[in-house]
Predict the structure.
Amino acid sequence: MCGIVGAIADRDVVPLLIDGLKRLEYRGYDSAGLAVVDGEVRRVRRTGRVAEMEAAAQAEGFRAALGIGHTRWATHGGVTESNAHPHISHGEIALVHNGIIENHEQQRERLRALGYAFESQTDTEVIAHLIHHYRSQGDDLLAALQRAVRELDGAYALAVVDKREPGRLVAARMGCPLLVGLGEGENFVASDVSAIVSVTRRVIYLEEGDTAEVTRQGVRIFDAEGRPAQREVHVSDVSLASLELGPYRHFMQKEIHEQPRAIADTIEAVVDAGGFSPALFGADAQALLRDVDRVQILACGTSHYAGLVARYWIEAIAGIPCAVDIASEYRYRKVVADPRQLVVTISQSGETLDTMEALKYAKSLGHAKTLAICNVPESAIPRASALVFYTRAGAEIGVASTKAFTTQLVALFALAGTLARLRGALTEAQQAEYLEALRHLPGSVQHALNLEPQIVAWAERFATKEHALFLGRGVHYPIALEGALKLKEISYIHAEAYPAGELKHGPLALVDSEMPVVVIAPNDSLLEKVKSNIQEVRARGGEMFVFADADSHFGESEGVHVIRTPRHVGVLSPVVHAIPVQLLAYHAALARGTDVDKPRNLAKSVTVE
Ligand code: AGP
């Protein structure tokens, strides 16, 4: 969603800010802007791409040693230049903001009564005026910021500059990520390390309620009570290569093809731990996982579908009941607490607000056994969890999650194996068999990727359709859900997924020759049932597109097209069958000419409710 970058240096920071904003583009945004302090506060804002804002900044000769930049994903107020950040108060204070201020209406009324005029419909503008108000009462910029944030309800990451204090920028964080980057004689703030990785890897993650003063010489951090605070310096290992497109046309395409490597890297953690071991999840895992009697999974979107696959594994392999909830639903449900329940959150970004709030809710009910499965080190959700498994997918830039999903599945399979072992439900022979299946997984995924030319041919037919159905059964039903989500989010083709047995209870009414039906049909215990369901569709004139492995013995016939997936890969089959549905969505989107990496209305990290 929104992105922040700020810099103070002895050189012109405008190119750094623009570069940082470009690196944040993947998060999803609809306008961009920057403000610099150069004797006065100068600002440029544009709706649309950062490149358009960059051209305007160049045309107007922007140069300065202090500045802040922002990419905005509209929440309060439409996509207009006047709603874009930075917001300025009285030509002196410029501010960028991620998050949502819930009491902005009350603050607006109060500030209006004090004589402040508003130029935008945003919740953010009140913060700029509030800081200006305290500044005009004699506070310096840092003190004014600290007073202002005490009066805000909601979530924020803020970076602020003041033309009367050109030697510093100040920042604050509550509920939205913000970090300080440490350079040599220059320092930075950013909402995401990728924004500043070309200038420094040394970062300090601000904690909830922190404020910071950033000068050329150093950084001072204060906790929520305004006391000086020490925070650890981390060296980020985000690779620049993962932020570059290389020979690929889109990040999604690159990330689909990176899956054999990402999966192998994630499996390496399991191998290093000597198999399914609590050590995979952190130092305290043995004690926390030992007496787990139920599992509750919380996540959103694709991560939720990973949880749905995991439910089959956890129940079948470990024999432990497992519930899976959409985080935004769980957080508002009256939940029966069980201290022996393990609460597992799954989040690629580690920032998703609904998942974070669901975790907080579970903790407030007394759930101390919490585990985060996450792809972004030091992000908010793992930091709030007792145990963590970091997937090793590398930075995922495309809005459509691909390699994060398949590596989450590997992590969840390892969790099922570990819980089974701790309960004595897994023999050495079974463990060896599962580890062998894991070892073969990157190869099977590569075979699935090799199906791309056949899938391209299917995708061209899909591109002309407006609707599609996806069917699966058992552990492959969540893969059908994931296929439908991928297709709709990047190609804008309306797609729904059903367990194939549910078809005749309603969705069959939709089937006609214009409705392509994708079926995930590997050779598992439900194959014969799926074959019957397919007949039901064929009898109504529906065109079938079947992903079936060689052992499924599916023949092509009129209206039934079959792509053979790698030979039966057993328990890890959902991971392998995720690949063709990703490729189908990607190529259908390509054929329709949509913006694959930045689909309309969507953002990579969903940090609002
Ligand atoms: C996936 O393609 C989506 N863009 C989206 O559903 C995503 O999985 C969801 O927003 C959850 O994100 P998270 O994994 O970062 O928490």
Observations:
- The domain at 452-592 is CATH 3.40.50.10490 (Rossmann fold).
- The two ends are 12 Å apart (CA to CA).
